[in-house]
Known about the structure:
Elements: H1 3-23, E1 30-42, E2 48-51, E3 56-64, H2 65-70, E4 77-81, E5 88-93, E6 95-97, E7 105-108, E8 112-132, E9 139-147, E10 150-156, H3 157-160, E11 165-171, E12 181-188, E13 199-201, E14 204-213, E15 216-223, E16 226-227, E17 234-242, E18 245-250, H4 252-255, E19 261-262, E20 266-267, E21 275-280, E22 288-290, E23 293-302
Parallel strand pairs: 1-4, 8-11, 15-19, 16-20
Antiparallel strand pairs: 1-3, 2-8, 3-7, 4-6, 5-8, 8-10, 9-14, 10-13, 11-12, 12-14, 15-18, 17-23, 18-22, 21-23
Amino acid sequence: MRRSEAWLLIASLLVALGLYLQVQPGDKIEREREFSVPLQVVGLEPKFAAREVPSSVLLLATGTEEELRVFDTRQVEASVSMTRAVPGEGEYAVRLNVPTRANVRVTARDPVIRITVEERTVKRIDVELEPVGSLSPLYSYGGASFQPMQVTVSGPASMMEQVAHVRAILNLEDAQPKGAYALNLEALDTSRRPVAGVSIEPKQVTVSPVIFTAPTSRNLFVQLRTKGQLAFGYEVKSYTITPNMALASGEPDLMARQSGVMTEPIDISDLKADKSFDVKLVSPEGVSLSPERVRVTLIIGRASGS
């Protein structure tokens, strides 16, 4: 075959291949799709704990566009078997469990991962409740009760050396009177930074915050009360009260009924001259006053026409 004929044959084959690819249905062309699934550790003896285990692994699904569209990645499971694990660093193969009805091929991006195995350490640690945020001005926070008050923390010995606290965070902005809340727990080091790679049992505590209606406050005028009679022919020309207002605080419904605050009765029997008194204020039940005492000065003079 002459060289010109050979080149003509090659060109014809390339054209035929291009035409063949053009007429192939698009749904037969394979594509790839990345997704991640949680990684499970199976078979590890209770006396051991694994470090640096990734929470998930990246997988690759290969199939046609339609096959990938109907493929449910949630049905795929990934695990590493650590039945024969011993302390130290080792390589472990990622095992995949893919539904048999799936028409796609699934592989792990990293089919082998490195995991460190250590002796497992266990501690019992008291739970610390940390309130954050602010309540509505209508409420006040009076502490909280929670159960359990102590939990079990376990994990690799090197990580457990760092664990000093177990904390639950109560967000007061979401709290309501008579509410009960299940709060997640986290392990902290001495600087109160989270410690990863350890387990807490139980994982939550039930918290019942003490929340009550907050007292409201407002200023009330002080009103003078007296008892007895001045000396014959004398009268109170004027008086001053210092301060003349007191800050009253109490439950909202109780405060709505308060119009003023009274002094204890001042005995003016037989007075003929000006006099000052240090007088206690009468606090209605359930209401607190500030200040609790005032200074009253009476200006006394002869009655008109006497």
